[in-house]
Amino acid sequence: MEEVVLKVENLCKDFGKEKVLKGISIDIKKAEKIVVLGPSGSGKSTFLRCLNCMEDPTSGSIIYEGEDLANFKVDINKHRQHIGMVFQHFNLFNNKNVIQNIMLAPVLIQTRELRKNRRKNFFIKVSNLFRKNKKPLIEINDTVAGIKKKNEEKAYALLKRIGLEDKALVYPSTLSGGQKQRIAIIRALAMEPKVMLFDEPTSALDPEMVGEVLELMKDLAEEGMTMVVVTHEMGFAREVANRVIFIDDGVIKEENSPKEFFSNPKDARLKDFLSKVL
Amino acid sequence: MRYKGKNMIDWQEQWAYFVRQWTNNGYKMFLRGLSNTCKIAILGLIIGIILGAVIAIIRVMPKYKLIPRILDKISAVYVAFFRGTPILVQLIIVHYILKPIFGFSVSSIIEAIIVFGLNSGAYVSEIMRSGINSVDKGQMEAGRSLGLGYWTTMVKIVLPQAIKNIIPTLGNEFIALMKDTSVVNIIAVDDLYRAFNLMGGSKYWYIIPYLVLAICYIVLVLIIAGLVKIIEKVMSKSDKKQEKNSKSKGFGKVSQKG
Questions:
Q1: For residue A201, which residues of chain B lie inside 8 Å, CB to CB?
Q2: Closest-CA residue in chain B for A88?
Q3: What is the pLDDT of residues A43-84, one digit of tens each?
Q4: A90-B127-B34 Cα angle (round to 5)
Q5: Do B82 and B90 meet the contact criterion of CB atoms below 8 Å apart?
Q6: Any chain B CB within 8 A of the CB of A214?
Q7: pLDDT at A136
Q8: Rounded average pLDDT over A195-209
Q9: Contact B145 A80 (CB under 8 A)
Q10: B151 touches chain A (CB under 8 A)
Q11: Beta strands A195-199 and A83-86: pairing type?
């Protein structure tokens, strides 16, 4: 539980003149489940979206694997592959069916990697003609078809896990909200992320369907996934979280274990918030 | 011959004259005119769609860096010029100003295709831009959050949905383009209008040829409108229909598209 995955330091974000985040610092450790609470407009969604640079932070730093994601020069696409994100409105690709939705990103990224390696090998081969001590080639065991097959199998395994294999060839418009959200979660999982960010995953769902999504998230939590969850589900926060943080007015007002957080709130605004919500 | 009033038209005689002209040489001119008109409209639209898509993407791109900003300015000027001047003027500029100055020797029809392509590119870029903006922002965000790049997400996810949304408008643009081709006779392209104009012959009897010309355009437009409707139907089917009737077929499709 000691390894820090994401280290956020003094994160600030302005939208024009409006200051939404005013310096947030937090260490997110491996396998930790953090639930972010706060009144609407407090900046909790913005905070989450800053973590994978969906919104570019105005200042501050987000250290992930020794690199600062807030820096423009860092290849953010590479890091986003390992930071899964689940949205409030699911955002499944409407022009792709379910299985394509899950496979698309891994297949594209892996084939690109493969092509890059092949190109590199070609140049190494050419330059080896003029070298005495030959440079070794990059090992390539995959083919494009192989990558597709591998990812297809993986996608079906993931679908099986949530019990929706029969929906594999269906387009998202025919699915219910709960099904969409669960597919969105496993689409993120297909990239084998190290951190998962959930941006109000149950807020756009019918009350009936909230349960199935939360169930899947609890499953993930038990598997030891590092999770940052923005939600209004207090029950989930109590049950699953290691740490609950309360953001108001762009700063972290309180940060505590769920037990302490709910039974013994210290901040006045938090007390007010909890009295209204619970 | 009995005297006829100034406004009296001998329809029978005129019709006979038209039929004679038609069978004589007219149908050949008609076919050539039709093919030229279609060529200009279709190739113009294809150039326009490609150009329009590129310009639309440039215009909606995030502009943090210098190069997109410069490209954006260039495309803004391009759109302003081609939307701001009539197509007749553009044709004249190319044919009577640019051609003599730079001395390039291309046939008039290629000139017409290029001008119509550039012209429709300007319009299509605006149509595409509205199409891209009509696609939910979340689609781009979802693609980016999975680690795909801006252009990859744009081409694989956003653009196909945008094109589906703008098919009716694009059909409209194609119809307008088809009808606009009637001005290309100004640079001596034998289009549909010119074919019927010549059929007036030495008697200058234009009434029937021009009426037939109007009917020709109406038929062309109706055909295009029908095609657009069919395309629309096919495209809207693709995301509603459940492909459960043939699982193996769908499976193969997945592997091909990736």
A1: none
A2: B138
A3: 888 999 999 888 888 889 999 888 888 888 888 888 899 999
A4: 130
A5: yes
A6: no
A7: 83
A8: 89
A9: yes
A10: no
A11: parallel
Phi, psi of B9 (to 5 degrees): -115, 130
The pLDDT assigned to B2 comes to 55
Q: What is the ipTM of this complex?
A: 0.86
Instruction: Please choose, from the candidates A252, A256, A183, A260, the residue with its C-alpha nearest in 3D space to the C-alpha of residue A24.
Output: A252
The residues, any chain, with a CB within 8 Å of residue A169's CB and separated by 6 or more, are A97, A98, A99, B242, B243, B244, B247, B250, B251, B254
Distance in angstroms (rounded) separating the CA atoms of residues A93 and A86: 13
Neighboring chain B residues of A114 at a CB cutoff of 8 Å: none
Residue ranges of domains in chain B: 8-257
Asked if A109's CB is within 8 angstroms of B145's CB, the reply is: no
Q: Which residues of B36-75 are buried (b: 16+ CB within 10 A; e: fewer)?
A: bbebbbebbbebbbebbbebbbbbbbeeeeeeeeebbeeb
Please state which architecture CATH assigns to domain B8-257. Orthogonal Bundle (1.10)
Mean of pLDDT over chain A: 89
A4: number of CA atoms within 13 Å, CB side?
A: 13
Chain B residues with CB under 8 Å of A109 CB are: 147-148
pLDDT digits (tens, 9 = 90+) for B65-119: 888 899 999 999 999 999 999 999 999 999 999 998 998 888 889 999 999 999 9
Whether residues B157 and A95 touch (CB distance < 8 A) is answered with yes
Q: Give the number of C-alpha atoms closer than 13 A to the C-alpha of residue A130, restricted to the C-beta side.
A: 4
For chain B (258 residues), the mean pLDDT of every run of 10, in chain order, is: 64 88 88 93 94 92 86 94 94 91 88 94 94 92 91 90 90 92 90 88 86 93 93 75 44 41
- State the best of A51, A54, A80, A108 to mutate against chain B, taking most chain B CBs within 10 Å: A108
